[in-house]
Design a protein that fits this description.
Number of helices: 10
Helix content: 40-55%
Order of helices and strands: HHHEEHEEEHHHEHEEEHEEHEEEE
Largest sheet: 6 strands, mixed
CATH topology of the largest domain: Heat Shock Protein 90
Number of domains: 3
Strand content: 15-25%
Strand order of the largest sheet: 7-10-11-14-12-13
Number of strands: 15
Length: 475
């Protein structure tokens, strides 16, 4: 089996086809041979039975046949033998010498026995089919007919079946090879195209015939889907690398420049502390940018979660503690009932944090957060008093590194809204950006009417957890 497994697939298919044909032809030939042999043997048995029935009554007590002419008229050779195998009487084409041994006579018993004299292959000169039976006390009647015609017919049949089977196998080998070539031709075509793709050719797909649905075409469709998925993954990785290299180049260059400037002259401890503080700010911005890039570079959906909308209050409190100078410029409106959204708590925290930071960085205070529960959806709305962005930019606002011209001088890399859209979309929700009656939708549209204030409004609409609404305990 190991040797067979090393053969080419086409050779194995042809060999398997030939093996199946050989078994089928052998079984068919054996059946035909058995049926012809059965018919010929039945004719011989009929002749022997007729001769035995005719001659048996003619044997007298002395072992002689009373009417030799009547016995010879059967056309069969006959002999009457005593218990020792000696011929008492004979006639027809049978010789005068015993045709059987005493052991053969002993095996007759009280019935009859049929024997073949002379081999079938190679053919004997005097082949006989004989039948032994008891007549009288200690005497046996032997009747026999020649098997020449029967053996010759069977040998000719065997030769013809062998020749026909050999010819059928040759034809089967040719047809099997042609069928295997035709069946494997698309596979070879797929292999050559796959080799071209592996060699660096982009945008290629396997040529799958239209209007067909068989194993090979289904394989082609599956491989094309796999190629599309791989190409998408490669594009995603390539875009991530390009984005990361593009955005990290500036802060890294800035860090390098600051370090070079710090080394130009000797400085005291206080000046070094000031330089380290500046470098710490740059490193913090660089770390934040790397985290955002990594978050955007992940594939797959967000894991199913269950987040209490109290996370929004925690984000607001953290922002107030971090920036006490503008704490009064950040307000929050929560519902009177506990509300839960189908999203991971950390993902919700990242979403709200990005929207709040975006509002303070690119909008104007005050910034107002509102949580509005619904039957199937929960809305988290962040509104600021800034002028917002141009209406034509709202559609592209969630693209990576998309920033309005006037916002390029402010901190940030243009990744906040892109990260928010990715998180919300993976959770099965929607991000809406609204300004002065212009509304844009990013993600899965939700049947929730637009409700926005006068300034720039970002609304995150998330699926609610069924049965999660309960009275909120007093704080």
């Amino acid at each position: 089996m190991s040797r067979v497994s090393r053969l080419p697939l086409r050779a194995r298919l042809v060999a398997g086809f030939l093996a199946a044909m050989l078994v089928l032809l052998t079984a068919t030939g054996a059946f035909v041979y058995w049926r012809v042999q059965y018919a010929l043997d039945r004719g011989l048995a009929s002749e022997l039975d007729q001769a035995r029935v005719t001659i048996s009554p003619l044997v007298d007590p002395t072992g002689h046949v009373t009417s030799v002419a009547a016995a010879d008229a059967t056309g069969a050779g006959w002999q009457v033998l005593d218990g020792t195998g000696r011929v008492v009487d004979s006639g027809g084409p049978a010789p005068a010498t015993p045709m059987v041994t005493p052991r053969d006579l002993a095996s007759v018993g009280g019935g009859t026995r049929t024997l073949d004299l002379g081999s079938f292959l190679p053919g004997a000169r005097h082949p006989y089919r004989i039948e032994l039976s008891t007549v009288g006390d200690g005497r046996y009647l032997l009747v026999g007919v020649r098997r020449d015609h029967r053996d010759e017919a069977l040998r000719e049949l065997l030769l013809q079946l062998s020749l026909a089977g050999l010819g059928a196998l040759v034809v089967a080998a040719v047809v099997g090879d042609l069928l295997a070539r035709a069946a494997l031709r698309p596979v070879e075509r797929y292999r050559r195209r796959a080799a071209d793709i592996a060699g660096g050719a982009g945008g290629l797909r396997l040529e799958v015939p239209a209007g067909r649905d068989d194993e090979v075409t289904r394989l082609g469709h599956t491989l094309n889907d796999m190629l599309a998925t791989l190409e998408h993954s490669l594009d995603h990785e390539r875009r991530f690398i390009n984005d990361a290299s593009h955005e990290l180049r500036t802060p890294l260059t800035l860090l390098k420049s600051r370090i070079q400037l710090a080394r130009r002259r000797a400085r005291d401890a206080e000046e070094h502390e000031a330089i380290l503080d500046e470098l710490a700010v740059d490193v913090a911005r660089l770390a934040n940018l790397a985290e955002q890039l990594l978050a955007l570079g992940t594939e797959g959906g967000e894991p199913a979660g269950d987040a209490d909308l109290g996370v929004v209050a925690a984000v607001v409190e953290q922002r107030r503690l971090a920036r006490p100078d503008v704490a009064d410029q950040l307000t929050l409106e929560l519902p009177t009932t506990d509300t839960r959204a189908a999203i991971e708590p950390l993902a919700l925290e990242r979403t709200v944090t990005n929207l709040v930071e975006n509002a303070f960085s690119h909008g104007l205070p005050p910034v107002h957060l509102r949580v509005a529960p619904g039957r199937d959806w929960v809305v988290v709305q962040v509104e600021d008093a800034g002028p917002g962005m141009p209406a034509e930019l709202l559609e592209q606002a969630t693209g990576r590194f998309t920033r309005a011209p006037e916002a390029r001088a402010r901190p940030g890399a243009g990744l906040g809204l892109s990260l928010v859209e990715q998180i919300v979309t993976r959770a099965g929700g929607e991000l809406r950006l609204c300004l002065d009656g212009v509304h844009t939708s990013h993600g899965t549209p939700a049947p929730v009417p637009c409700d926005h204030g006068r300034g720039m409004t970002a609304s995150v609409i998330l699926p609610s957890v069924p049965g999660s609404t309960a009275p909120r305990p007093a704080s």
